[in-house]
Amino acid sequence: MNKLYPLMFKPIFKEKIWGGQKIKTVLGKDFSPLPNCGEVWVLSGVENNQTVIENGFLVGNDLNEIVEVYMGDLLGDKIFQKFGNEFPILIKFIDANDWLSIQVHPDDGLAWKRHNSLGKTEMWYIFDAEKDAELISGFSKKLDKESYQKHLENKTLKSVMNFEKVKSGDVYYMPAGRVHALGPGILLAEIQQTSDVTYRIYDWDRIDEAGMMRDLHTEEALDALDFEVYDNYKTNYDPQLNTTVKLVESPHFTTNLIHLSKPIKKDYSELDSFIIYVCAEGKFELKNDDQKYSITKGEAILLPAILDQVEIYPSPETKILEVYMIY
Question: Catalytic one among 114, 178, 200, 206?
C-alpha cells in the first residue's frame, strides 16, 4: 500500500439565504455560479457531502473512502476504533451577510436517539468582522422551558439572548445545547463534530424567494436547550508568537493557534491522531518527506496520524489553527 501524505481537498460551496461575497473577496474562492455563498466546507465526511482529495495519488477519492482503507494510519488507532469509517471532524468557513437563524444543536445522546448521528459541538474562530458586528451565544437570563416558550409565543426571544460584539481573532466555543446565531459582517472558521443536525428556533420572520418561511424545530429544540447562564461565553487566550497556544480542549476536538514569524518543526510522534491545519491568516509552506505544500488563508490540509514530523515555513507571517483529537 502506498504511503500516506498530507491531503488537500476540493471545497464544497453552499448557497444560503443569509450568505454574502466574502468567501470570494476575502478568501479568494470562486463559488460561481452561486449568487450568495454562505458556507464552504473544506474538510467533510458528512454523508452526501464528502470532500474529495485533489492532490497526490489518492486524487479523486472522498474522505471516508480513504478512512476505510487506511483506518488507524489516517485517523489514529483509538479514534478509528470509536468512529469507524466516518471522519469525525467537519471544517467549514461561514460568511454571514445577514443574521443566521437562532438555533441549537443536540448532544451525542439525543442526536443518536433521534437521527442516528453524532451531536454537534462546535467552535468559531473569527477571521474578519465589520465594525459593531455581533453574534448570539447563550441566554442573558436564567430561563426554564415554560418561560422560554412564553418568549417564543410573544416574539420576545431576542430580549433574553446574550449578544456579543466580535473582532478578528475572537474565539467562541459552542457546546451542544447552547443557543446561538451569527450576525451580519462576520467571516469565520467553524470546527465541529461531523453532524448536520440543527434545530432552528427563530428565523427573524424571514421570507425566501418563493415567499416561504423556513421550517422551525420548536418542539425538537426543547429537549436540546441548555437554559443555564454563564459568566463568560467568549474563549479567552493569550496570543504568543512562534509557539502553540491552546484555544479549545474538549472531548470532541482540540484546537490550538500557531502564530509564526519563523520556521518551526512539529513532532507528533506521541499523538495518536490526525492533524488538521487551517490557515487563518497569511500563508505558509508545509514540508514533509521532501515534499512541499503551499497553504493560504482559507485553505486546510489534513496530516494523517502516521506522519510524525513536519516543518512549517511562514511567508512571512501566518496564523494557523491546529486541530486534532485525544482519545
Answer: 200
